[in-house]
Amino acid sequence: MNVFVIGIGLIGGSFAIDIKAAFNEAKVYGIDNNTKHLDDALSLGFIDYKSKIDDLANADVVVIAIPVDATVEILPSILDKVPDNCLVFDAGSTKKKLCNTISDHKKRRNYLAVHPIAGTEFSGPQAAIANLYRGKTNIICEVEKTAFKLQERGMEIFSRLGMRIRYMDPGSHDKHIAYVSHLSHISSFMLGKTVIEKEKNERDIFDMAGSGFASTVRLAKSSPAMWAPIFKHNKENVIETLEEYIINLTQFKELIEKDDFSAIYKEMENTNHIKTILKGIV
Amino acid sequence: MNVFVIGIGLIGGSFAIDIKAAFNEAKVYGIDNNTKHLDDALSLGFIDYKSKIDDLANADVVVIAIPVDATVEILPSILDKVPDNCLVFDAGSTKKKLCNTISDHKKRRNYLAVHPIAGTEFSGPQAAIANLYRGKTNIICEVEKTAFKLQERGMEIFSRLGMRIRYMDPGSHDKHIAYVSHLSHISSFMLGKTVIEKEKNERDIFDMAGSGFASTVRLAKSSPAMWAPIFKHNKENVIETLEEYIINLTQFKELIEKDDFSAIYKEMENTNHIKTILKGIV
After folding, report:
1. What is the pLDDT of residues B42-101, one digit of tens each?
2. How many CB pairs under 8 A join A and B?
3. Which residue, A56, B124, B171, B257, is most buried by CB atoms nearer than 10 A?
4. pLDDT value of position B67
5. What is the number of structural domains in chain A?
6. End of a domain among A130, A149, A168?
7. What residues of chain A lie within 8 A of the CB of B268, using their CB?
8. How far apart are the first and last CA of chain A?
């Protein structure tokens, strides 16, 4: 099985590691604009060969793990190049624009729209880790538009990697993911910004910040190259979540201004309910 | 050494556990309005005796670990009751109001204003753990107003518990801590609220939420009984941080609306700098 991974970073690299471990016969070919990343992936041993887009004629599986705007740009030509029996899937955090882009492509049935809910705040091949996907949710959109044999090949990969599959339409995916993922990143980035702006003396932040701050601001370490295109693709949904978030923050501030601390208490008590919801998420 | 711990929850209980481990001769007396908590602390073995405020005449050390508004209310009468050579310290997340309240108390020199930057999102005696304070920052305010011998006793305790000491005035403490702690809690609570409001179908949140959301919303599990009084005490500073946070979020939203994704990129890239600042925080 010839597996081509386009984008040898945290996501693509972790797929490479796990696919090599799960499929003895897999040969992994890495493709990346960043030659340093390719060299790193080769010396880290999770790709077998450095490769190029033009070699895709030999692919059985293509994994695309690059920023979502680059995926939209490149996906049609990738589909043009792959053989008829090749599965192409991406791992991007938005799905609607991607699905729309290739909806009329003559090789639409070679593509599976995938979003593995997995990752860390780090990036690049050095950040790739084994078992990143184990126990994680994998959202698949428009599964019915993919050829049955290729659905099956995808499922075999995801199953050996230990993922839980959920099917959704691209619109619902983008709407819900804006709440549970994209908004978290913005709230974290802006928390980091607010604190950095205020605390010019970094020693003070470091010394006074505890694990609570570290946890809340963790996502502000994430890669702008990955996240700016996500916000661009999911613009309407992200704006909606931000508006609701800002309204809730403003209302909380007004309760403090009015000294209505019993309402403040109730707001927090109601939200404590998140404990139950989160039970089971790593 | 007779140590009285008022408030046998996460913070007080963890002090009890570590002080018992670090001082062979320590006897720990627990005081709590919640009799169930007292019974739990006794059966968990981290207090030796259940006790009452009126027994404080025998105290060598009093640790106050109750919500900050309750501490302000009770601290003067605690100082009235303790013997002349007794050290009283609290562990509250705001310091200015507390220091002001007892500034003219005749036993001011028995009090040390302390804020250990340590905790988890859990509460109650079951949440108390050993070594919670090891390697953590302990902020001490107005140290010069505490009797030298009692400063020394406090330092001996904090040193054996493995804490790093930092001295600050109460006003600066409250201002900085609003940024690195209080704002994180509100951003997390309101993130939880925004997502819960939207996602009535909780299965969907659970299945789509990854470790990023879990981390950012972790503090929304915190105790309202502890946090409502903190926001009340630190009202002005908290409002200021919230205003700046809301401005930054609104500006980020406007950049998305204007499709200025290169500015979005730069905002995130600048904030990535938090990596360096956070290095070393657990």
Report:
1. 999 999 999 999 999 999 999 999 999 999 999 999 999 999 999 999 999 999 999 999
2. 316
3. A56
4. 96
5. 2
6. A168
7. 189, 220, 222, 224, 227-228
8. 32
Of B113, B144, B168, the last residue of a domain is B168
The size of chain A, in residues, is: 282
Residues A13 and A147 in one domain: yes
Please judge whether B242 and A222 are an interchain contact, meaning their C-beta atoms are less than 8 angstroms apart. no
Is B228–A264 a contact, with Cβ atoms under 8 angstroms apart? yes
CB contact under 8 A, A268 and B243: no
Residue B281 pLDDT exceeds 70: no
User: Smallest CA–CA separation between B123 and chain A, in Å?
Assistant: 12
By three-state DSSP, how is residue B85 classified? Answer: coil
Q: Do B160 and B184 sit in the same domain of this protein?
A: no
Same domain (yes/no): A190, A140: no
The sign of the dihedral angle between the CA atoms of B182, B185, B188, B191 is negative
Chain B residue nearest residue A192, CA to CA: B271
Domain span including residue B226: 173-278
Q: Which of B181, B206, B238 sits opposite A277 (nearest CB)?
A: B206
User: What is the structure's pLDDT at A201?
Assistant: 67
> Residue B102 corresponds to which tokens in the numbers above?
């007892």
Nearest to B267 among A164, A187, A193 (CB): A193
Nearest CA in chain B to A138: B208
- Nearest Cα of chain B lies from the Cα of A194 at a distance, in angstroms, of 6
**Of residues A130, A132, A128, A154, the one with CA closest to residue A143:** A154
A22 and A148 both lie in a single domain: yes
From the list B189, B207, B246, the residue facing A271 with the nearest CB is B189
B271: CATH? 1.10.3660.10
Distances (CA, A) of B26 to B21, B23, B136: 9, 5, 22
Instruction: Pick the residue of B69, B165, B197, B253 with the most A CBs within 10 A to test the interface with A by mutation.
Output: B253
Q: How confident is the model at residue B275 (pLDDT cuts 50, 70, 90)?
A: confident
Indicate whether B280 pLDDT > 70.
Answer: no
Q: How confident is the model at residue B210 (pLDDT cuts 50, 70, 90)?
A: confident
Name the maximum alpha-carbon separation found in chain A.
Answer: 68
What stretches in chain A show pLDDT beneath 50? 282
Q: Are residues A225 and A92 part of one domain? A: no
> Across chain B, where does the E strand assignment appear?
2-6, 27-31, 49-50, 61-64, 87-90, 111-116, 137-141, 164-168
Structure confidence at residue B267 as a pLDDT band (50, 70, 90): very high
Angle, helices B261-271 vs A183-198, to 10°: value is 60
pLDDT, position B232: 97
Q: Mean pLDDT, to the nearest integer, of B189-212?
A: 83
B282 pLDDT more than 50: no
At B140-174, the pLDDT tens digits run: 999 999 999 999 999 999 999 999 999 999 999 99
Residue A52, both tokens: 């190029």
Q: What is the pLDDT of residue B211?
A: 87
Shortest Cα–Cα distance, B25 to chain A (Å): 31
Partners of residue B253 in chain A, C-beta under 8 Å: 239, 242-243, 246
B147 and B8 fall within a common domain: yes
